[in-house]
Write a structure and sequence with these properties.
680 residues, alpha+beta, 6-stranded mixed sheet, 16 helices, 37 strands, 30% helix
């Protein structure tokens, strides 16, 4: 029982990593994803990696299975019209327009208000029901809960076939009693409905964000329950699911809080890349996970990916803790198309796994980024070590047809597709760094995923990066990341005050830690670790700054430490603070606790040193600035210290690294290829 397996389901491929903790052996593989039923691809990948490890498909020898997936939220990300057709909303009487009013903000500023069309709400107005009763901001009851209105609302939903219901009543973060009574009424009057309460999903103030977060949870619950149930039945054993906050949770618990798993695959990639970069001596880095459908970008500072509670799922704000990830529709399957104005565009629409790029021979008829790479010779005429043969002539015909429409040569057209994709990725990197006050030139880039390394050299040029790090088996870093994370649950309580009482704050933190201990106990952990934090702001500000809070008893000295950290962090973020100015009071807003069940992380193996010059395995015609016969290396043949000078191509099972002219790739002690520009 020393085997642990991580399975990351992507839009095009399902990536699998097996770690044998007894022998230290790591086995990686890929299998095509199965969008119609993702569980098929999951099971195929697990059996395939077990056979590669030792020939047996017996799951009894597996100690742990961890899954990263966005199955639950794909319908929201893709804005499918039927994605929320089953969804209803219950809120406090008089607040039925909370979703319509939202934050009264217009994308790109109010100058865009003449052109911007408000998108549909997650729940249309005709599926919103209100219930009488009112609490104040401290949780005191002003008007009693209206049982009759609640029953009428429940029956209204039942009669119209609304089977998923989100409940967000005013000030329920301070007192959940009215919401719990609403759940009791729904269980009695509409027992087949799944219900999400905002006091369970996000016990934090700000009604709009809490409402939408609760509704997203309710929307994905039925899908997640079906998927997890199907997978559990086929596996016949427990497994865990990656959460967006950088932890994992058992599948049995995930069905009760599915919103915590949004963007779980990208989160695993950021954590895996952080571990790889840290071992190689780079505690701070930018991570770029290039897949078939999209590219996910995050920033790691001092070994930890940045966290946020201001994330979004598609157009929906979700205030759950998650790794701060920016996603752009620029993957290998992103489709190149001609706008009505006659200009070349790339993405965000993707060919995905079915039908896939033209070169896959699966019926795809539109040119993709992968087709452009294949046409230019930068990708070999096969994938996965020859398991998937690519139709180079079909890719060439597709590129030539698109080039003719644009009046370009095929080479210029294909290069343009890759250039647009690189700039789309660079804009995502700027968003996660420059817009957060970070200098992108201070961070090396960890490029992984099946398509991540393909544009590494261009990104170094465009952004002025010091280096790009390509980990071993880059196509499986997200699956590897699944095996590096602890069990982690987050709890929050809003408590707004300018005169914090050590006794009250201590009681709130004790309650949150008790909740965390209970959850970790259900997960089988005897050892618990708690991480405290607090959200503070200067009185009069609209938004908060989160800082770490120390362990130990809450007293005046504890309050002073947290306030001091807030002053320092505010000054770092915004360039000013009011540490010694009594006119600007500090206001406490939220207290947070993360309960952590630690695991043993896999150790990264060192590569043997290679004193000799690496030998290429062949040559082929590759187009960089012009067509030329270019050497091709097999990555498995390279040892520590091996140097590859461009122009060249480095191939491996799950990905390819084109080394452009003027660039050099050197393998470090841990098997990472470190790419630098010869001009720096």
């Amino acid at each position: 029982m020393s085997i642990r397996i991580g399975v990351d389901t992507g839009g095009t491929f399902t990536d699998v990593v097996l770690v044998d903790e007894e022998s230290g052996r790591v086995v990686t593989t890929k299998t095509p994803s199965t969008p119609a039923n993702p569980a098929d691809g999951f099971m195929a990948g697990v059996h395939k990696v077990l056979e590669a490890h030792g020939g047996s498909r017996d799951l009894d020898a597996v100690a742990a299975l961890v899954h990263g997936t966005t199955v639950a939220t794909n319908q929201l990300l893709e804005d499918r019209p039927d994605g929320t057709a089953h969804l209803g909303f219950v809120t406090t009487e008089g607040f039925e327009s909370v979703l319509e009013i939202a934050r009264q903000s217009v994308p790109d500023g109010y100058g865009n208000s003449y052109f911007w069309v408000k998108p549909p709400r997650i729940v249309p107005a005709h599926r919103v029901r209100t219930v009488g009763g009112r609490l104040d901001h401290l949780g005191g009851e002003i008007r009693p809960f209206d049982e009759k209105q609640a029953a009428d609302a429940a029956r209204w939903f039942r009669e119209r076939g609304v089977t998923a219901i989100g409940v967000c009543l005013l000030h329920s973060y301070a007192n959940p009693a009215h919401e719990r009574r609403m759940r009791e009424v729904l269980e009695r009057e509409h027992p087949e409905a799944v219900v999400s309460l905002s006091s369970d999903v996000l016990r934090e103030y700000r009604e709009y964000e809490r409402s939408v977060t609760t509704l997203v949870d309710a929307a994905v619950k039925p899908i997640m329950r079906r998927y997890i149930g199907n997978l559990s039945e086929r596996l016949g054993r427990p497994f865990s699911v990656m959460k967006s906050n950088g932890g994992v949770l058992s599948a049995a618990e995930v069905v009760h809080q599915p919103i915590t798993t949004v963007l779980s695959g990208p989160a695993a990639g950021a954590l895996g890349a952080a571990l790889v970069a840290g071992a190689a001596g780079h505690p701070s880095a930018i991570t770029l996970d290039g897949g078939g459908t999209s590219t996910d970008v995050a920033v790691v500072v001092d070994g930890e990916p940045s966290l946020t509670t201001e994330g979004r799922i598609g157009r929906y704000p979700c205030k759950i803790p998650m790794i701060d990830i920016v996603t752009v529709g620029a993957g290998g399957g992103s489709i190149a198309w001609v706008s009505p104005e006659g200009t070349l565009k790339v993405g965000p629409r993707s060919a995905g796994a079915d039908p896939g790029p033209i070169c896959y021979g699966g019926g795809g008829a539109e040119v993709t980024v992968t087709d452009a790479h294949v046409f230019l010779g930068r990708v070999p005429p096969h994938l996965l070590g020859g398991e998937i043969r690519l139709d180079v002539s079909a890719a060439r015909a597709g590129v030539e047809a698109l080039a003719a429409r644009l009046g370009l040569t095929p080479e210029r057209c294909a290069t343009g597709i890759l250039e647009i994709s690189a700039f789309n990725q660079s804009n995502a990197i700027r968003q996660i760094t420059v817009q957060r006050g970070l200098d992108v030139r201070d961070f090396p880039l960890v490029a992984f995923g099946g398509s991540g390394p393909l544009l590494a050299c261009r990104l170094i040029d465009v952004l002025g990066l010091p280096a790009a790090i390509i980990p071993p088996d880059p196509g499986n870093v997200s699956a590897f990341g699944l095996l590096t994370v602890d069990v982690k649950n987050d709890y929050v309580r809003t408590h707004v005050t300018r005169e914090p009482s050590p006794r009250v704050l201590g009681e709130i933190l004790a309650d949150l830690e008790a909740e965390a201990a209970d959850a970790l106990g259900r997960e089988g952990f005897a050892e618990h670790v708690y991480a405290r934090s607090a959200d503070l702001r200067y009185y009069g500000q609209a938004y908060e700054v989160r800082v770490a809070a120390p362990d130990g008893p809450v007293d005046d000295a504890w309050l002073a430490v947290v306030a001091g950290r807030f002053h320092a962090e505010h000054e770092r973020l915004y360039g000013y603070g009011y540490r010694d100015d009594p006119r600007h009071a500090v206001e406490w807003v939220n207290l947070r606790v993360s309960g952590i069940g630690p695991i043993t992380r896999p150790k990264l193996a060192r590569k043997p040193y290679q004193p000799d010059e690496p030998s290429p395995v062949g040559t082929r015609d590759v187009y960089y600035e012009r067509w030329g016969r270019t050497v091709v290396y097999r990555r498995d043949d390279l040892g520590a210290g091996a140097v590859v000078r461009g122009p060249a191509v480095v191939e491996e099972y799950g990905s390819t690294l084109p080394v452009h002219p003027g660039f050099t790739a050197t393998m470090d002690d841990y098997g990472n290829l470190v790419v630098v520009s010869d001009d720096r």
